Amino acid sequence: MPHHPTVQAAELAPSSTIVADPNLLLQAHVRQGLARPFKALSSMYFYDDEGSRLFQQIMALPEYYPTRTEFALLSRHRAAIARALRPQNPAEPFFLLELGAGDGLKTKILLRELLEEGADFTYVPVDISAAALEGLGASLQAELPTLRVEPVVADYADALGLMAARPGRKAVLFLGSNIGNFSPEERQQFLQRLARPLTADDRLLIGFDLQKDPRLIRAAYDDSQGVTAAFNYNLLHRLNREMEADFDLDYWQHYTDYNPLTGAVRSFLASTRAQTVHFAALDWSVDFRAWEMIHTENSYKFTRPGIEAAAQEAGLQVAEFFTDEQDYFADVLLRRQDA
């Protein structure tokens, strides 16, 4: 599952503020994505407030193993991971920046460990959902009242720009299996962008869902309760609401497949009949053939050699490789190759 969209307002330092119109970004994306021969919309637009709520439900599903598996992994290795993220000098301050913070359930494991160790750090959660960050802020205030928090409502690209402009040591978290939502080309570009502003002292911790029983993987993205389908349909609800579109959800189906050769889970919305969808806000319409697909999401699964090769190509190297007991999931610590 993913995490990447809109920008509302963000401040990491008093002088660094993002300005962008999320409505214009969405309109441009829809025009481009639905005008292609093979129609596609980015999974980043799943995550309005309702989408974020549905994703919280997905993470609690019995079929959706990644969240609970990574939670167990972080619990198991929390002391070693905390030591790897913080400076060697315990008195040195640093920023712990998390891309796609969500509800912070897993991150709190590391936050508690760092606070117990007396680390001097500021937590910078980044998410495209203001509601998610508000909820996270409230829970952190209640559970970890001494924690310094500077939330940022932004997409990944803007957050990385702010990260580069902020002086001081940084440890960047990209947990979950969000890295799998990029195409291979996008993934390399993203890793290169992550690597570019890093100093020799900075660290990255990225979550990778590992290849395993294909039946287990497919079930995680097509659950028996239909929550994942509702998560996909919410994208059409969002376009109806924000762009005055007229998608009739009675004539759309959610479909998922998994290719164990490429490691790619792909999600689609299928038009079950020939139809024309109008976007009143754009004075524009799109024709769909019967059973034409809108590709909405990739979720790639990885091998250790593949992770090491991708890191090397991006100018990074694997410093440590943390896995759960079943080798279902890995949180991988990365640093610059010349560090």
UniProtKB/TrEMBL annotation:
Gene Ontology molecular function terms on file: methyltransferase activity
Keyword hit for DNA repair: no
Keyword tags: Methyltransferase, Transferase
Gene3D superfamilies in the record: Vaccinia Virus protein VP39
Biological process per Gene Ontology, one example term: methylation
UniProt name for this protein: Dimethylhistidine N-methyltransferase
Domain annotation Histidine-specific methyltransferase SAM-dependent: ranges: 27-335
Organism: Hymenobacter psychrophilus
Entry annotated with the keyword Transferase: yes
PANTHER family, per the entry: ERGOTHIONEINE BIOSYNTHESIS PROTEIN 1 (PTHR43397)
